[in-house]
Design goal:
mainly beta
Length: 127
């Protein structure tokens, strides 16, 4: 089973950018679709973005579409989330997750599709 670890979170002013990374180990990374979720204080965890095994198919929530970009480099066993034009409402703990989909175009979008989760990284956007 794959293990996941996020990095790249921090404090940034509104309008700024951050790039999150999710490194994996322990399994064949390329057989997993990957996703990013986030949880703000007092809120439910929500879907942010997801990518299929090859990187050829992606999906974004409406709240981040056009500002965030998800990508992956299978040779490095790493997934990324480039976040631009950040807003205070983007403040949350960001989690990466893996779904064992095999070599599929499927891009899982719900939490129940994901079986492996990282510990999360805090992103704080100041106004």
């Amino acid at each position: 089973q794959v293990q996941l670890g996020e990095s790249g979170g921090g404090l940034v002013q509104a309008g700024g950018s951050l790039r999150l990374s999710c490194a994996s180990s322990g399994a064949i990374f390329s057989t997993y679709a990957m996703g990013w979720f986030r949880q703000a204080p007092g809120e439910e965890r929500e879907f942010v973005a997801a990518i299929n095994w090859s990187g050829g198919f992606t999906y974004y929530s409406d709240s981040v579409k056009g500002r965030f970009t998800i990508s992956r480099v299978n040779a490095k066993n790493t997934m990324y989330l480039q976040m631009n034009n950040l807003r205070p409402e983007d403040t949350a703990i960001y989690y990466c997750a893996a779904a064992l989909t095999g070599y599929s175009t499927y891009v899982p979008r719900t939490q129940n599709d994901y079986r492996v989760w990282g510990q999360g990284t805090q992103v704080t956007v100041s106004s």
